[in-house]
Fold this sequence. Notes:
Elements: E1 10-12, E2 66-68, H1 71-84, E3 85-87, H2 95-98, H3 107-110, E4 119-123, H4 129-137, E5 142-147, H5 150-163, E6 168-172, H6 175-182, E7 188-194, H7 212-220, E8 222-232, H8 235-247, E9 251-253, H9 269-276, E10 282-288
Parallel strand pairs: 3-6, 4-5, 4-7, 5-6, 7-8
Antiparallel strand pairs: 1-2, 8-10, 9-10
Bound molecules: S-adenosylmethionine.
Amino acid sequence: MGGKAWGRVTVDLDPMASSPATDRPAPADDVRDDAGRRPMFPDGPAARPHPGAHHERRIRTFHPRRGRVTDAQADAINRLWRRWGLDIDGTPLDLAALFAPGRGGDAAQDSPGTPPPPVVLEIGFGMGDATAAMAAADPATGILAVDVHTPGQGNLLHLAEDAGLENVRVGNGDAVVLLRDMLAPASLAGLRVYFPDPWPKARHHKRRLIQPEFVRLAVSRLAPGAVVHCATDWEPYAEQMLEVLSAEPALRNEHDGYAPRPAFRPMTKFERQGLAKGHVVHDLLFTRV
Ligand SMILES: C[S@@+](CC[C@H](N)C(=O)[O-])C[C@H]1O[C@@H](n2cnc3c(N)ncnc32)[C@H](O)[C@@H]1O
């Protein structure tokens, strides 16, 4: 069952589900989905963005999450989702419109005719600290950051607002659906996948994101010259990434094997945890030919 979190209540935050209609007061406009459920946040992500969009994929690459949404995160989602959020709902996406300057804000009036930025997709941003730092360091690039983790979405929106980042958009849902159904061929200037879930058990390997079929799909959405940047602290997954990315004819490895850690990639939460366990981190940098 899906859940909700107001204030400091800890509940089931499966983003693929929505909250039962009875467990909190009705919002003023009482918007419900087809099954009569209300969305988790009145002005946040859709309760179930696209019937079937998530569920038709039988193998998920992410864990259903339990977590606590803090007051600040809930507030950021409610206030900023309409402006900077994206429901992964299967609808073809106009990236230029999504990244129009000041979308939802006054700045749109101030910057008529500003060309849209090149857009890099980050899959699985977690709490979003690295995403926000990279966006701040490169304001000319649009970052489309996608995850299913509600506290992280709230955190990243909060960070983006605090730092005045106009170049971050936050997607809720499955990045595979985004790539498959919503993004046009050759529309992305890059792809970042930092510390994807390693799924260490053999019976779960099928859930790993970096697989030949996924890479073929992702590459089809990349413009020539786009960079694919992956990082992991899980050695067997690093080997799988190297093998799968090297076998994709439309990608060229920029290094002989693993890449040296690029200075532009900030330390992420999962990287820190991996290093504390003594894991070795590998980066991989490939270019779309
Ligand atoms: C291990 S965490 C790493 C988070 C962050 N990159 C870091 O290094 O701290 C992996 C994240 O990827 C997300 N994820 C996995 N598969 C995904 C998918 N198909 N679409 C969107 N997010 C996904 C998970 O929800 C999770 O937050």
